[in-house]
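Researcher: Next entry in the queue.
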Amino acid sequence: MNRVDSVIIDQQAIQSIILADDDRDDHDFFKTALQEIDPTKKLNIVTDGAQLLALLEHYVPDLIFLDLDMPCKNGLECLKEIRTNTVLHNLPVVVFSSTSRPANITTAYEMGGNLFFIKPSNYNDLVAAIRSILSMDWSNPNAIKEKYLVENSYAPFSVEKPGTSAAAT
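Model: Structure for this entry, 169 residues:
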């Protein structure tokens, strides 16, 4: 999806991604992990919220990974603008943050994030998580979000281990 004409996600695989994050090391790890998973995926990287919103004026990816703590416009400000834009409001957004504070996680979901992904501490976990996220059915991003509402509280994404549920408890 390269045009802003409409955002319609079907069952097809995610092909284009925007990573919005101001940390250069996170860019490198994410890019390397994505290349390992599937080198045909298109990745655009922006370093602040203003750049993200400017890019979204003429380019709509299949999925956004959005850091909360960025200069110019933070992730929550970007989420608000994406969700109030009639063209972008259904665009899948994965909040990609180092925070694990429950209040931040809840706020990100309530502001329109479809998934909250805490940045892992090692590369192998990053690869496993991105692989899992890309394999999700993004045709209904709100259905993914609903899976992480557990007992009236939002949970962050975690890679399923054998014998565990998809959402943290």
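Model: Residues 16-154 form a domain with the Rossmann fold fold (CATH 3.40.50.2300).
Researcher: Noted, moving on.
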